[in-house]
Amino acid sequence: MTWLWLELVAEVPSRAVATVPVSRVDDGSAAFLAFWSKDLDRPGRALRVDARLADGGSPATWVSWCRADAEQSYAFDDGAVGGALRQSLSRPWPEARSTLLVDWSRIAGAIAIAASVEGIADDPFARIFPRQLLRVDAGMLGFIDAPTGPGITRYGSGNPWPWDRYAGQVT
After folding, report:
1. Would you give the distance in Å from CA 153 to the centre of its chain?
2. CB-count burial class (<10 Å; 0-12, 13-18, 19+) for 75
3. Distance from C-alpha of 62 to C-alpha of 53, rounded to nearest angstrom
4. pLDDT value at position 158?
5. Taking a C-beta distance cutoff of 8 angstroms, is the pair 155, 166 a contact?
6. Where does the chain show beta strands of DSSP type E?
């Protein structure tokens, strides 16, 4: 599993490996999704995200950014988190979805991107974390396929969900 640090910020930060301009739907203000290398210490309040999100190329123009306030987080195995994961798997998969992890066992949010607002309108993670709806130019964020198999567990405790293969699996 390859991951990066990610945070929604007001200005382009230094040392970011990628930034994606977004606009907040509620007030039209500009912001940036900033990605940092996992080799850095946690930059500010950034969270771990599946690195494929930074690859670009998807038609997504809508972002559901569900993020805990301050330093609040939940155990990844919390019942509410498990329920949101199951609900996510039971619905049509958007262009990408990833949990946002604080550390090896704590979740503080989730991100989903879709080509239409309907694809993320009822984000199960918005029941747990405050949500901001964002707009982004098509092609700026990448695809993340739905995870394979019936499970909702992570592959390795430090990896953002979903992950679609196990180490050694040929794809």
Report:
1. 16
2. exposed
3. 13
4. 58
5. yes
6. 3-9, 18-24, 30-36, 47-50, 62-67, 74-75, 96-101, 106-114, 131-136
Residues 81-101 pLDDT 10s: 999 999 998 899 999 999 999
ω into 162 cis (within 30 of 0): yes
> Taken in order 86, 87, 90, 91, is the CA torsion positive or negative?
negative
Q: How is the chain split into domains, by residue range?
A: 3-136
Cα–Cα dist 168/21, whole Å: 36
Q: What are 35-54's pLDDT values in tens digits?
A: 999 999 999 999 999 999 99
* Least confident residue range of 87-96, 115-124, 144-153: 144-153
Residue 88, classed as helix, strand or coil, is helix
Dihedral sign (CA 154, 77, 152, 120) = negative
Closest CA relative to residue 115, chosen from 98, 88, 145, 136: 136
Q: How many CB atoms lie within 10 A of CB 117?
A: 13
Residue 20's φ and ψ, nearest 5 degrees, are -125, 115
- Is the distance from CB of 29 to CB of 23 less than 8 angstroms? yes
The residues with which 134 forms a beta bridge, in sequence order, are 24, 63
- How does the average pLDDT of the chain come out, rounded? 89
